[in-house]
């Protein structure tokens, strides 16, 4: 019993980092928690006497299981009803994220990382979010140090190609606040001014609630789309503000229940991505 208690103590100490790795790889709190249950079982039943570095063993186990799990998750996401977006987390209230850095946590970044091969995604997460040295990344993903560097480099180039330089959080908050104000009143002219010319709006309802099932593209089209549903969506709602995945977000409630979490990605050209998280199954952190 004493040996098992020590194992539990070690696991509890490392768990925040393990959760941070698993969540970034899977974009789902439930999936990350399930994966950590598997990691715990393996840690509980393995021969711990031969494990020289428990932290490295647990991080390696978590990452390798997450690589496998993300392959299965990608298949599920391909059949998902409408755009799939990562589950939002209140970063200020959830210490389990346990990240030394806020990298690879934003909804916009997780959305792009979903497109990467799982091993490339893992290498990027380990390096950018947790500052693992390349030789350790190589050991974890079972490749050479040179290949590990290449994996991280490719991931960085992919993100740079897909995403403009983001504005500071304070400016993002200003743009988001102005967008919500204009959206609630259906102010078409202001909406168009706030949006980048090639803005894309994604709505994740998962088939459980009414939400557009295809991305809406272009400043004029998105502005008209937002105005079109203003009279149906906003009346009777209240808007609160939260730190979602390390970024400002609007939390929309109706009759005391959260119905949407809205966050944006913005650059010097304006808001270039809108993420409407509306699937009730993904709003657990905001409906408790």
Report on the architecture of this protein:
With 288 residues, this protein is of the alpha+beta class. Helix content is 53%, strand content 16%. It is built from 11 helices and 6 strands. It has helices at 2-26, 29-45, 54-78, 107-113, 118-128, 134-141, 145-162, 169-185, 188-194, 219-233, 284-287, and strands spanning 195-204, 216-217, 237-244, 247-254, 257-267, 270-277. Strands 2-1-6-5-4-3 form a 6-stranded mixed beta sheet. α3 (54-78) crosses α5 (118-128), α6 (134-141) crosses α7 and α9 crosses α10. The chain is globular. The model has no long low-confidence stretch (mean pLDDT 92).
Radius of gyration: 20 Å
- Biggest beta sheet summary: 6 strands, mixed
Number of strands: 6
Strand order, sheet with most strands: 2-1-6-5-4-3
Low-confidence stretches: none
Order of helices and strands: HHHHHHHHHEEHEEEEH
Structural class: alpha+beta
Portion of residues in beta strands equals 15-25%
**Whole-number mean pLDDT:** 92
Number of helices: 11
Helix proportion range:
40-55%
- Bulk shape: globular
Distance between the first and last residues' Cα: 35 Å
């Amino acid at each position: 019993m004493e040996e098992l208690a020590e194992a539990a103590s070690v696991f509890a100490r490392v768990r925040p980092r393990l959760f941070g790795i698993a969540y970034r790889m899977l974009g789902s709190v439930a999936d990350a928690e399930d994966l950590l249950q598997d990691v715990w079982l393996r840690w509980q039943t393995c021969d711990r006497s031969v494990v020289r570095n428990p932290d490295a063993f647990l991080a390696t186990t978590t990452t390798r299981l997450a690589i496998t799990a993300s392959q299965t998750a990608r298949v599920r996401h391909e059949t998902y009803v409408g755009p799939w977006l990562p589950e939002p987390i209140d970063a200020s209230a959830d210490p389990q994220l346990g990240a030394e850095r806020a990298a690879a946590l934003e909804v916009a970044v997780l959305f792009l990382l979903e497109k990467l091969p799982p091993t490339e995604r893992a290498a990027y997460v380990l390096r950018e979010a947790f500052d693992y040295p390349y030789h350790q990344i190589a050991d974890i993903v079972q490749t050479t140090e040179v290949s590990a560097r290449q994996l991280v480099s490719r991931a960085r180039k992919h993100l740079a190609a897909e995403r403009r330089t983001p504005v500071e959080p304070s400016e993002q908050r200003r743009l988001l606040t102005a967008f919500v104000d204009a959206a609630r009143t259906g102010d078409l002219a202001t909406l168009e001014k706030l949006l980048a010319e090639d803005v894309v709006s994604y709505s994740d309802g998962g088939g459980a609630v009414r939400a557009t099932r295809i991305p809406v593209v272009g400043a004029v089209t998105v502005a008209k789309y937002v105005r079109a549903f203003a009279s149906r969506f906003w009346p009777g709602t209240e808007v609160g503000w939260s730190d979602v995945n390390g970024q400002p977000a609007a939390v929309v409630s109706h009759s005391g229940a959260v119905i949407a979490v809205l966050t944006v990605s913005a650059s010097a050209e304006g808001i270039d991505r809108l993420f409407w998280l509306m699937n009730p199954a993904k709003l657990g952190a905001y409906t408790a």
